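LAB NOTEBOOK - FOLDING QUEUE
OPERATOR: T.R.
BATCH SIZE: 2
PURPOSE: Compare the predicted C-alpha cell outputs for two unrelated chains run back to back under identical settings.
PRIORITY: normal
REVIEWER: second-year student, initials M.K.

ITEM 1
FIELD SEQUENCE / FIELD STRUCTURE:
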Amino acid sequence: MSGMGRREFITLLGGAAAVWPLAAQAQQPARPIIGFMSSRSASDSEYLVAAFRKGLSEQGYAEGQNVAIEFRWANGRYEQLPALAADLLEQRIAVLVAVGGEPSALAAKGATSTIPIVFTIGGDPMKIGLVASMNRPRGNATGVSLLAIEPEAKRLAMLHELVPKSALIAVLINPNFGDFESRLRELSAAARTLSRRIEYYKASTDAELELAFSRIAQENAAALLPAGDAFFDTRRERIIAFAARSRLPTIYQFREAAMAGGLMTYGISITEGYRQTGVYAAQILKGANPGELPVYQSIKFELVINLKTANALGIEIPANLLALADEVIE
C-alpha cells in the first residue's frame, strides 16, 4: 500500500507567475467568460464540472457572480472539437479550458495561439507539442497531465493475475485517441513480457463499439482492458454492462467505473485533476501567464476493487491485489 496510497499532486511553482499580457484580455466584458470544451458528455461529467468549479471557488471565483462559463461537449465525437473551439472563441472568452484528453487539447491549440488554454490530458503534453517544457510551458497553454495512459501496462499485468495464462485478453482501443501507434507498441511489449496473448479491438464510434463487443464475445476473450479514452468514458455504462453479460473481468482507468459496478480500476484521481484545472483557469483570470505555470502531474495512483462484482463474476481476487487496494467495495 505504501506506493499506492493517498492521491497527491505536485507542482514546481518557482515564484509569482509573470502577468500574461493580452490585448484580448483588456477588451473582456466586466464578468470574464471561461470557455469549457470537453471530449466527454455533460451527463457523465457532472462530478468533474463540480471539481472544476471547486478549483475556481478556491481562488475566489463563483459562476454567475464574478465569472461566466460557456460549455461545449463533443460526446466522444472528436471530429467536432475544432468547430466547438472556434465557436467558443467567438464568445469573447478570457480562457479556453480543454478537457477530456489529447483531442480536445490539440483542437484548442490549433484554434488559438493567443487566448490562454488550460488542458487536462492523459499523456505527455511535450510529446504532442502542447508545451515546450513541463516546468515552463512557454506559449499560451498549460494544464494537468493525469498520466491516465501510462499505467495501461500495469492494468494489463493486474488482469494477467486474474485469468489463466493461455486465455486471450481483449484490449478495446480507439485509433483516434492520443498516440495510437506508441500505445500499441507499449501494450504489445507489456504482453510479451507477461507472455500473454492479447488482441486489439478498435472502436471510435458506437457502431464500431457494438461490433467490437460482438467480436470479443465470439473469440472467447477471458478478460477485457478498455484503453484510457474519453470516448470509452462516455460509454462506460455500456462497457460495464457488456462485461457483466459476458462475465469478463475488466479493469478501467478511473475509480468511478468501480463505483458504477466495474470490477477494478487503477489510475489517478480525475476529480483532483479537474480541481487543479479550475485553479489554473482562475489564476490566469487574475493575470498569471500560462507559459509560466508548470504542468501539474499526478504521481500517486489508486487501486479500487469491487468485490460485489467479483462475486457476481465468480472471480477470486488474489490476496496480493487485495493487499495493494486503496479501496475495496464490499
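ITEM 2
FIELD SEQUENCE / FIELD STRUCTURE:
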Amino acid sequence: MRGYLRIGELSRRTGVSETTLRAWERRYALLRPERSEGGFRLYADDDVARVRSMQDHLERGVSASEAARLALDEPATSGVAPVEGLVNELSAAIEALDDVAAQTALDRTLGTLTVAGALRDVLLPVMRDVGRGWEDDQAAIAREHFATNLVRGRLLALARGWDLGGGPRALLACAPEEQHDLGLIAFGLALRSRGWRITYLGPMTPVTTLAEAARLTEPALIVLSSSLEQRLEGSDGELSGLASGFRLALGGPGSTEELASRVGAELLPPDPFDAAASV
C-alpha cells in the first residue's frame, strides 16, 4: 500500500514519540516507509497497525525486540474486510440521516485508518455513491446535502493548521459558482502530507479574487477546481493572465485538457492522491 502519512501524524495517531518511532524503525525494521519525491518518509496503514501491535506487546511485559518480532509476524490489519465494514457503517448512517451514527462511523474510520486511507478507501467512495442519482430523487438530494455537510466539516477540522511549516505553498480554490469542494479539500490534505502548506479559499471564488490572493501569498502552485465545464466559460483571459505569473493547475471533472492547454495551465489527474503526487 502506498504511504501517505508523515512521521508527525504517525506519532499523533499512535501516541508514540517521533524519536521512539525512528528508533523502532532503525533497530527492528518495524516500519517500512516509502520516499516521496521531496525525500520525506511516508508511512501507510500497515505501519500504524505494527506500531499499535508493538505497543500492545510491550504493555504485556514483552521485551522490545520480541515485541517488534511479534508485530512483524502478524498479518496486516488494513485489508478489505475492515474497510468494507467501515463503508457499510457510514453508508447506513447516511441512508438513515442519522447524525449520531454517522459521527460515530467517522470516528471509527479515522481511528482505524490513516487520514489518506480514510479518504481514499471510505469517505470519497461513500460520497460518490451518495451523489449518484440525486438529480431525480428528493430523498437522495437530502442525503447528499446531509453527507456533504457531515464529511466537509470533519475534513476541514482535520485541515486545521495545514498552513504551518516551511514547505512550498499551494493556493486552492473552486471556480466561480462552484460549490462542491470535497475533492479539493482531499487534494489539499494529500498535498499537506507531502510537506506543502495550504492556503484555502474554498467554494465560488472569482478568478480576480484568486489572482489577488496569489499576489499576496506568492504560492508555488495555484489549483482551481470545477465540477462542470461551464463554471470556467469566459475566463480564458483571466486564467491566462494568472498562468503567466504563477504555476496554475486545473482540477475536477469540469476541467479539460483543451482548456488547460489554451490558458497555459496544467491538468491534474482526477484522483486527489494521484494529483498530489503529480505536482
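REVIEWER COMMENT (ITEM 2): Strands lie at 34-35, 41-42, 169-174, 197-202, 221-225, 248-251, 266-267.
FOLLOW-UP: none requested
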